Amino acid sequence: MFILVDGTVMTRDEIAGSLDGMLAWESYEIGDAGLAEPFVALMSSTYRRIDGEPRLALYQQTTVTH
Question: Per-residue pLDDT tens for 34-45?
Answer without folding.
Answer: 778 888 889 999
